[in-house]
Structure formats: C-alpha cells, structure tokens
Amino acid sequence: MCGFAVWYSDTESIKDKETILNAMSQTLCRRGPDEQGVYLKDNICLMHRRLIVIDPDTGKQPMTETLGEQDICLVYNGELYNTDELRNELIRCGYDFKGHSDTEVLLKSYLHWGTECVKQLNGIFAFSVYDKRNGSLFIARDPIGVKPFFYYSYNGGILAASEIKALLANPIVKPLIDEQGLMELLFLGPGRTSGQGVFKNIGELLPGECGIYKDGILTKQRYFSIKARPHIDNRDQTKEHVRFLLTDAIERQLISDVPLCTFLSGGLDSSIISNTAANYYKRKNLPLNTYSVNYTDNKKYFQKSLFQPNSDEDFIDIMVRHTGSKHHEVILDNTDLYNALFDSVKARDLPGMVDVDSSLLLFCKEVKKDFTVALSGECADELFGGYPWYHNEQILFEECFPWSRSQAIRRSILKSGVLPKGEEYVRQRYLDTVNHTDCLPDDNRHTRRMREMFMLNFNWFMQTLLDRKDRCSMYGSLEVRVPFCDYRIVEYAYNMPWELKALDGREKGIVRAAFSDLLPETIIQRKKSPYPKTHNPLYFELTALGALKVLNNKTSPLSDYLNAAGIREIIRNPEEISSPWYGQLMRTPQILAYIVQLDYWFREYHVEIV
C-alpha cells in the first residue's frame, strides 16, 4: 500500500509552496517508505509515498499519461484484484502497457472508461486523477471502505490525502473540533460517523463514493451501495458459492512481488485464509509463513468470558500442523502495549480502540521485519453473523447500536451538563442507518431486522476495524489485505437468508459448512473468539495510573469535561462495568486507556474546541 496527498488551488499558484508540500508528503512516509514522487504544476500538486509491492520499476507514482499537451496524472493507494482481466480487456481495446503494475491498469482504465472506471474495479483503493483536458480532479474510494480517503474543501481549492495528518500539515486546515466532534469522540468513539473526520470541516469519501472537483465545486456520488435482492440459491448452491467466492478472493490477494504471510489466530476466518494460502503456495513449491500475537503471562491470567471463551494457542498449533506453515508467535510486553497507546493515536490521528490498536501496531512492526504483505481475517463476523448480538433475540431487536447498548457508562465519566444532547446524537446516528437500509417488499420482521443489523455492522463496527487495520499496519509500513471484504462477498452475504447464514444454528454456519472438508473438525466447531487482548493486571494498573494522571493535571484539555469522581469509582470497582464501552473488548482498562488517549490527542494535535 501507499499514501498520497493532493492540493488543487483555484485561486493561487502553489509552485512556491515547497515547504508546505514537503510537510504534507513527509507525514505519509510510514505508508510509503520506499519511494516518493511529486507532480507539480502551477496550481496542482499530487504527492505520493510508495510501499513497493508489485512492479518496482514501472509502477512509480505519480503516474502520468500525456495526450497531446494534456496530462492525466494519477496517485493511488491500494491493490486491484482483477488487474489481469482489466489489462487483457484494455489490450484488446488497443492500449499498450510498459509494465505489470495495477497502477498502470488503473490509469488506463480511467483513460478508457473515464469516471465510470470505478465500476470495473475489484479491489481496495483510494485514488485521485488530475485531468488537464477539462481541469478536473476525479477522486474515488473502494466499495467497502478498506482504504482511507480524507479531504478538505475550502473556498479556493481542495486538499485530499490518505490520512488526516497530511491535511493538517497544510496551514489552511486548522485542528478544530466543535460540539458535534466532541459527541463523536465521547458518545460514539472509537467509532465515528462515516463521511466525517471528527475534526471540523474535514470530510471523508464514503465507501463506494467518488467525486469530481471542478471550477471550485465538489460533486460526489455513490457508485456502489448494498442493495436487497432475492437469494435464489439453495443450501448446497449457497455453500458452494461461499466457498468459491472466499477461495477466489484469497487467491487473488496472494499476488505480490515481495514476501507475503498470513495472520493465524486458530479461529475459523484466519484458518480458512491460511489453509487456502498454504495450498496455493504448495502448488508453487513455496512455504507459507503464519503469525500470531499474544501477551506476556497471558496463559497465567487468562479468564474465560462470554465473548472470549478460550485462548488461541491450542488452535494455532492444530492449524500449523494442518497447513505445514512456518509459524511465528509475537509476544508483546504489557508496558510496551501501554506506551504504544500514544503511537496508535498518531497512527489513527484520533483516539481509537486503545490496546486493540496498540497491540496491532506493535504486532505489525514485528511482522514487517521479514514481510511486506499479510492477509488477515477481518470482517467475516460483520458479514456472516459472527457476533453474539446477531443471535440474542433480546439484543437483536433493541433499537440501539448492539456493541454500545447503553450510554450510561459514558455519561458517568462526564461532568453534569456536558454535551446534554449526546444520547440524542447517538440515537439519530442509529436511525440514519436503519432508515436507509434497503429491503425487499416481502421481507418479514426478522429478515428486515437482520438487514438492519448487517448495515449497522457494515457502516459502523466494520469501518472502525478497517480504520484500525489500515492505520496501525501502515504505521509499520506493512500492507494488510482483507479477503472477506471483497465486494462480491459483501453483496452475497447481505442477501443470504438467516437460516442459511446461521446454518445449523451456528454463528457463520454457512462458512463453517463451506470449508468443513478442508479444515480440522476442532477448528470448524470452535466458538467465535475475538482478537486476543491482555489479561495481565499490570495493564490495568498502568491505565489506571495514566487516567489518574490526566485527572490530576489541571491543565488537561479534558478538565472541563471529565467527572473525576465517576472515573475514580470505575478504578475502585473495575468489575462492576456490566456493559462494554465499545464491542467485546473495551471494558474498564480500555475505558481508562481511552481517557489517556483523548488527553494525548488534544495535546499532541493542538486541538482547539470551537
């Protein structure tokens, strides 16, 4: 993967803004440590930072095609998984290619199909194309939202970038936050409303959205959205098609000119990916390397729960023997895990999923020592009903976000009168999602609710995890691909009847059935277990000390907002938190860590509340 930034000015020349342009580019060096490139004309600059994965020699960016005296210039972050098909079609249409990069295929797809090129692409991407022929800037993001695209449109131009930090490196953009941004952080965080960057006036292209900036106006449109359609396949056909789609997506994403590995937790999703990759590599007489993560003394302190019924070690061993992979276990120190909370804020440009972020950041840093590309099993649970809230009828029909059902814990850490409309804000965001869920006229109550639940997970929980995966992996210059996020899989899963999706009454039942003859029975039957977290009491001690330090600092930006008594009560009685802050993993230590991250974010980014 890579990173890019764009500055298009309607009112002034930017050729003499070298210091600003360099600062914007420099913020993205972790996303692309191998090469940098710049396309700079009088009022337009496209900057690129490259992590070399495919076609080192002829895949350089920005990539420019000149027609007569008119340049068409592309900067791009992502991977196209139908590169060969597109290239062959374009060759039949008379196009020539200098190399085998997907960047060149994307540029010539734009030349051939224009802005409709996005409908031809299967992949994860964010890109900008400057077209001098009509003075436009075309921008686009992949259908699922795997790759980030932030922008700042102002009176006189537009800025765009892979990460918020690149926008903030331009003095035009101020690190401001208003009441809406505060409600995003304190009542929705670490989730956030798609399309918003939390910072005031920083926007985000939605998944499946593209746009054209021309003559001072940005016009956006959705080229992809999830639509309800009848599911016409029977049980056997559905099982066969799920197996085909997943296998095809995984094998397409194994293409790389640099070393590639897979993440392996011993859960169903990572096991499917690792097993498919191992078989693919065996056909090429190559070994597969797999990686897992754990924490110091976790075996000693592990505690079973409804959300985390077992630890990963035994299941990983089963899959390593089954695939014959060369396995690497990364053990993280709990003090390092706490200290990495601060780098993970800088990776995301926002407070995040705390230790779930910082552990991934540290894990990817270790993987990067030997590999540049990895495959991971994110998003299967959102698409195929893997979470408990899909299966608990009481939770299922509650009119709220199921991973953050109550705002009481959030309200308890705030001073009286702070953000009085916070609960109302959350409620409206929930309604915005369910009210725009596409359904069929004959959907019954349960089917309609399952569609709503799918879209709640897709638009919110899944986007939070994709944010985490992209930013925390790219902070270590590691490209992580997510095969379950193939748009074909998403569309098929959306329209699959629940009795097939939860086949035999199991979470992800259809996926289990589709691969039952390829994986060990123990793996097929393993109950869903989330990303591993630390159970070491040292981590709680560190987060408690960190939160108390924030409370005792009268100059903290949070001093006007936090209820010190409420937070101290949480520290004294950590087991009394009955409802998680966000998802399965954010409980007392993570709430305290989130406070630490909030304070650091305000100070590190010089955020001003307006």
Q: What characterizes the major β-sheet?
A: 6 strands, antiparallel
Mean pLDDT: 95
Q: Based on helices, strands and strand pairing, what is the structural class? A: alpha/beta
Q: What's the shape? A: globular
- Which percent bin holds the helix content? 40-55%
Percent of residues in beta strands: 15-25%
Using the CA coordinates, give the radius of gyration: 24 Å
End-to-end distance, in Å?
35 Å
Main sheet strand line-up:
2-3-1-9-8-11
**How many helices does DSSP assign?**
23
The total of beta strands comes to: 19
- Low-pLDDT residue spans: none
Please tell me about this protein's structure.
There is one protein chain. With 610 residues, the chain is an alpha/beta fold. Helices cover 40% and strands 17% of the residues. The protein has 23 helices and 19 strands. The strands form 4 sheets. The protein has a 6-stranded antiparallel β-sheet. Strands 4-5-6-7-12-13 form a 6-stranded antiparallel β-sheet, covered by helices on one side. A 5-stranded parallel β-sheet has the order 16-15-14-17-18, with helices on both faces. Helix 7 (268-283) links the parallel strand 14 and strand 15. Helix 6 crosses helix 7, helix 10 packs across helix 23 (588-604) and helix 11 crosses helix 16. The longest helix is centred in the last third of the chain and has 30 residues, at 445-474. The protein is globular. It starts with a strand and ends with a strand. The mean pLDDT is 95.
